[in-house]
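step 3/5: co-fold with magnesium ion
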Amino acid sequence: MRLVIIGPPGAGKGTQAQYLVETFGLAHVATGDLFRAAISQGTPLGQEAKKYLDAGQLVPDAVTVSMVRERLREPDCQRGFLLDGFPRTVPQAEALQAMLAENGAALDAVLNIDVPEEKLVARLTGRRVCRRCGANYHLVYNPPRVAGVCDRCGGELYQRSDDTEETVRRRRQVYREQTAPLLAYYRQQGLLREVDGDQSVQEVGRAVLRALGRQ
Ligand code: AP5
Ligand code: MG
Ligand code: ZN
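step 4/5: write tokens
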């Protein structure tokens, strides 16, 4: 299965991705996570990407597409993958389509997790992320069993540096201007599956399975 999950910042892409990849045995390819890993390792890619993430702007398409191309060549992606946070522009979507077509492959579905704007700031400012495995938590909506510690791996939880109110606003504007047009692109291809993201984590999870025809 080859899936894409789209939604505004804080919609719950990473949270739902976590369950989906476990359920279907898919590789989780999250471009934001890949950039953050490169930044913390201090690689040239990380140095380039850092200024964009800090500003809440998109990393240039050429850089992002070549990173994804390499990642999708890895063995774990051969049995299927879930792209989380990519594509985010129409040119990225076209590049993805071309890249898959080279191997006679195509996407199976694109999930759009929709959440009203006014809910997103609270989701993001209360988010905590595992430093070791990347799992997402929320201080109120999805708390870990022990404060500050990841349920899954025992790693330390931290707050993302782009989860400040000002950067969240910028990220949302970038989403509206550059990513929202992708919805029409995928709708036209008959791939778009709409999911109401304004429900509990478990309810959204069930809606995702229904949207995929798996429940
Ligand atoms: P990225 O890391 O992808 O950030 P994002 O798109 O802004 O999305 P988030 O990860 O913030 O939100 P999410 O939807 O995953 O929500 P989550 O599940 O964590 O990208 C970061 C940056 O990298 C970009 O700004 C850009 O600079 C760069 N970048 C990445 N991809 C790129 C690309 N393709 N091209 C160019 N640049 C790129 O949930 C949020 C919170 O809500 C959590 O606390 C969670 O516990 C809680 N929550 C989740 N579901 C629910 C629910 N149903 N009810 C209540 N709370 C919930
Ligand atoms: Mg995420
Ligand atoms: Zn963890």
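step 5/5: annotate
The mean pLDDT is 96.
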